[in-house]
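Supplementary Methods, section 5.1.

A reviewer requested that the exact input to the structure prediction be made available. We therefore reproduce it here, unchanged from the version used in the analyses.
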Amino acid sequence: MGEITRIASGGLWEPIFGYSRAVAAGGWVMVAGTTGFDEHGTLAGVGQMYVQARQAITNIAAALERAGSNLGNVVRTRVFVTDITRLNEVARAHKESFGANPPASTVVEVRRLAHPDMLVEIEADAFAGPSREEQSTSTIARAQVRTVRSSTRAKPRAAGKRSAKASVKSSIKSKTTRRRR
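The structure derived from this sequence is encoded token-by-token as follows.
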């Protein structure tokens, strides 16, 4: 079974709410909703959605780095904004950070976030591939599947016998014909 690593950032909300900034498991790193607070606990860019989005993505990058990953491995983001009419500001920050490797993404407008000055919160999921342990286990499993498949190859049918697939098709046709009558 794979290892699960929980990564804290020391952020204000982690001990209050009881969550990890990121969790790494099975080649995946999931980064919790991340806002624009800097390393000193100050919200960057009060009233500025672009600045908060950039800081949130910087915080995501730091969490991914601690987990041995990076922004290039992000496959999905979820963006929560308090004013969808300002989407272009968040989109600009998102594209600047992920433009070379665009992830699947969702943007949702919410009424408000945990702090009244927060304008954006971003979650990210990154895939870096299986760990070495999982790779070796997977290689063994694939070899076993190949062995099973090769030992269960279809044997030649005797002349005049129909395949199971043909029998099923014939059965379906006759049931359909009976219903129409």
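The longest strand covers residues 74-81. These observations are discussed further in the main text.
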